[in-house]
Sequence to fold (182 residues):
Amino acid sequence: MAIQSIRLFGDPVLRTAAAPVVDFDKELRKLVKDLTDTMMDAPGAGLAAPQIGVGLRVFTYYVDDRLGHLVNPDLDLSADLDEDGEEGCLSFPGLSYPTPRAVRAVAKGFDMHGEPVTLEGTDLMARCFQHETDHLDGILFIDRMDPKQRKLAMKAIREAEWSGLSAPVIKMSPHATGGRAL
Ligand SMILES: [Zn+2]
Fold:
């Protein structure tokens, strides 16, 4: 097992665009293993390399019993949106908010051996692909919320135990990820 610590909101690495993978080498395979182990341990439905402090375009996912990874992802999104599906993030422990996302996504990229991969997802899987690819661009789910939700989220972040300020009791609401964050 190679479980890494997960970077929390406020860490600059989460706001830094990640670089494309060029070398499909042993280091990349170790990164995919670290991401997978860390995601499963959390547990989470997805994890992007910047969340463990690595600035490369790689993420892992575990949704509806589909476990995998994608390198250098490129997304094609449906026009129809799920406006109010709940979403969480391992870099914002305990918080989840309605976050608009495309209902369907086709994700093209590569596996860790450099073979081309095309993944299709709807609902939670599509949400995961969008959330993780955003991480690779330094974009966080709070950026995708409508202004009212973002205001609520920022207040909860300021008050969260992990932000280093006073700690309220955070209620987890049942949501689409089954309690797993991304
Ligand atoms: Zn996240």
